[in-house]
Amino acid sequence: MKLKxxxxxxxxxxxxxxxKQKFGIDHDVLTSLAEEIKSIKKHKVELAxxxxxxxxxxxxxxxxxxxxxxxxxxxxxLATVINALAIQDSLEKAGLFCRVLSAIEMFAIAxxxxxxxxxxxxxxxxxxxFAGGTGNPYFTTDTTAALRAAEINADLxxxxxxxxxxxxxxxxxxxxxxxxxxxxxxxxxxxxLKVMDSTAVSLCMDNEIPIIVLDLTKRGNIERAxxxxxxxxxVVKE
Length: 238
Known about the structure:
By secondary structure, this protein is α/β, with parallel strands linked by helices. It has one domain: Carbamate kinase, CATH 3.40.1160. It is built from nine helices and eleven strands. A nine-stranded mixed beta sheet has the order 4-3-5-2-1-6-10-11-9, with helices on both faces. Helix 2 crosses helix 4 (69-93) and helix 6 (141-151) packs parallel to helix 8. It is globular and about 50 Å long. The two termini are 26 Å apart.
């Protein structure tokens, strides 16, 4: 299979890790994810992953309930470390080499985030999981994904969801909502389409990193996307 994208950043939400319950860690989901990743690694794809922590803790709702925003965000970052370790475990059980790099230093369980080290791991064929968000409050893991993608010179950001792309409206609320096959960054920003937050989309736009939003629950979707075949919605400059 000829790949269109060689170095890829995969963005996973915490809710995806939580499975149908949307909280905690669903080991069946992780096993399925590991098999999907194993199928693309045989094509020598350099892969990095950014994972959210919403299945364990979300900082914004906590701050709306009275918690200090920075404290809530730091707690959310710690939740991403838990998810990153779970992903590492599932990948290693599938026979893949994996390293967790955290923006918040935790020497006992993860390597500190160092850009050059991350790139070197990927060049050696290891899957890199970025944990701890950006290491700063007030930034989402979507923004982390865009930032890390730019830092490692990724060819593509894959935004994994349980929906098969970006729609004109919420397809759950409106059955007549139309799915975009291709959409521009500015359309996403101007129409406030729910893809990634505006900071993340702007970062990708400024660095001309395409985004593909796809349904990760559909087997083989990642492989189709990386080979340039239709899979979800493509977000590009033109």
